[in-house]
Design goal:
Layout: E1 3-7, H1 12-23, E2 27-32, E3 38-39, H2 45-59, E4 65-68, H3 79-103, E5 108-112, H4 126-132, H5 136-146, H6 149-172, E6 177-183, H7 189-196, H8 201-206, H9 217-228, E7 239-242, H10 246-250
Parallel strand pairs: 1-2, 1-4, 2-3, 4-5, 5-6, 6-7
Bound molecules: nicotinamide-adenine-dinucleotide.
Length: about 260
């Protein structure tokens, strides 16, 4: 059965993705800071290389798919960390596995972005531009200097979505597919931490999708499973909003 590497596998959406894919019979390589098949810190260049090497060893050089789910939210210990994990932890891990994805003859990837990537940041934003220029030191410096976790979170999700769409063009020419899921609020420890934070709690509680509820990790896992399946064989470079109508509400005159 296909081998799929999932980052952020130990919690929330990543854990639900793993449960669903395993149920479907896939072989998984779980990647996280701890309690995973590959324990590595995706916030640093060394940790990312370690994650890539260990994943390559475990898949034997041929990988069918990657789900890049690891991420930190607005309550992260530093603003720069948001950029380090949410953008570079995705891009460098994927780049390191490109050859293995090609080797399988059917490489696919899903990046878990966020509805925040299309809402809160006016593109082009200097922080997002630095990420897309692959300049981690500059992106982290701008992020830390700004002291604005929401802007950094939105910029990281905007940039990783643009990165994914650019990659999808390249990959699609080689028979591979890459798509991005943009979840709205989903009931996970990350979301709960923002609700519990006195700085952000009220705003998060008041920002409710038209469906009147947050999503469940299983609802994001179902969308991921679909995008990796042959049912999605002509879908590449898409951004799938799984957000209870949030994006349609906020960007009422755009798409
Ligand atoms: P979560 O905190 O439950 O899970 C995130 C996982 O990523 C954890 O297991 C954590 O250990 C791992 N991780 C964080 N930093 C890491 C690092 N440096 N190296 C390796 N692993 C690391 O959160 P979640 O809500 O399941 O988030 C999953 C993804 O979904 C994130 O990218 C997040 O931005 C995105 N997202 C979440 C929501 C939401 O409301 N929950 C909404 C939109 C997007």
């Amino acid at each position: 059965m296909p081998t799929i590497a999932v980052t952020g596998a130990a919690s929330g959406i990543g854990a639900a993705v793993c449960a669903q894919l395993e149920n479907e019979g896939h072989t998984l390589i779980r990647v996280d800071r701890a309690n995973a098949d590959v324990n590595a810190d995706l916030s640093t260049p060394e940790g990312r290389q370690q994650a890539v090497q260990a994943t390559l060893e475990q898949c034997g050089g041929s990988l069918d798919a990657v789900v890049a789910c690891a991420g930190v939210g607005v309550t992260a210990p530093s603003v720069g960390l948001i950029v380090g994990v949410n953008y570079f932890g995705v891009a460098e891990y994927l780049e390191g596995l490109e050859t293995a994805l090609k080797a399988s003859g059917r490489g696919k990837a899903v990046i878990i972005g966020s509805v925040a990537g299309s809402h809160q940041v006016a593109a082009p934003h200097a922080m997002a531009e630095a990420m897309l220029d692959n300049d981690e030191a500059k992106a982290r410096e701008i992020a830390d200097d700004s002291g604005e976790p929401h802007t950094a979170y939105a910029a990281s999700k905007y940039a990783v979505t643009v990165y994914g769409r650019r990659k999808a063009v390249e990959w699609s020419r080689q028979g591979m597919r890459l798509n991005i899921i943009a979840p709205g609020a989903v009931e996970t420890p990350l979301h709960q931490a923002s609700i519990d934070d006195p700085r952000f709690g009220e705003a998060v509680r008041n920002f409710v999708a038209p469906m009147g509820r947050a999503g469940t990790p299983d609802e994001i896992a179902s969308a991921t499973s679909f995008l990796l399946s042959d049912q999605a064989s002509f879908i590449s470079g898409s951004v799938l909003f799984v957000d209870g109508g949030m994006d349609a509400m906020v960007r009422a005159r755009q798409f």
